[in-house]
Amino acid sequence: MGTSEFLNGFLSDIPGNVRPGTTGLPIPGYKVQVVDENNNPVPAGVVGGLFVSGESLMIGYWNRHEENQRVMFGNSMKTGDKFYQDEDGYFYYVGRCIDLFKVNGMWVEAHEIEDILIRHPKVYQVAVDDEISEEELTQIVAYVVLQPSVLPSEELTKELMRYMKANMDHFKCPKVYRYVMEIPMGRQVKLIGKC
């Protein structure tokens, strides 16, 4: 496993020493740790953020100073991935620290959309996800639980679309609204928390 920020893999299975279900062990030249929100290493078996050090790390994201300050630490970086490590040092991928996906070449954070949509007076709960459309493009889908006195309708969907366009960049606005009775609490980001 690796990231484009490192231009190389930093976790890999070693021939003759493969553990199914893992992303392997650190490659020589890289230090890989699972850390908490304060970048402190966590014990084996505890889920946290992946923190990687290595000489091949990029200098930083172009014109994204706030993000650089949040994730870059010299030649180390928080990758934005959730992992845990077993007692033997093998790493296990759990998911992303945030629901992040790319739409039309732009990165979108689900919570940013959810934070705006939940403010609409007719919305009780919301969860945002991405899916591939029939045209094989990534589109944003909002799963919406309405307030008890509100019924789903085409007019309501148009109202929510107008509301979102007035409050967000157009590429972040959901293209599909699905009305549901409840939001399952099994979404990774809610169960596992930040890293």
Automatic annotation (TrEMBL):
InterPro entries linked: AMP-bd_C, AMP-bd_C_sf, AMP-dep_synth/lig_dom
GO biological process, one term: secondary metabolite biosynthetic process
One Pfam family matching this protein: AMP-binding_C
UniProt keyword terms in alphabetical order: Ligase
Residue ranges constituting the AMP-dependent synthetase/ligase domain according to the UniProt record: 17-62
GO molecular function: acid-thiol ligase activity
Domain annotation AMP-binding enzyme C-terminal: ranges: 112-187
Protein name, as recorded: Acyl-coenzyme A synthetase/AMP-(Fatty) acid ligase
Organism: Clostridium beijerinckii
Lineage, opening ranks: Bacteria, Bacillati, Bacillota, Clostridia, Eubacteriales
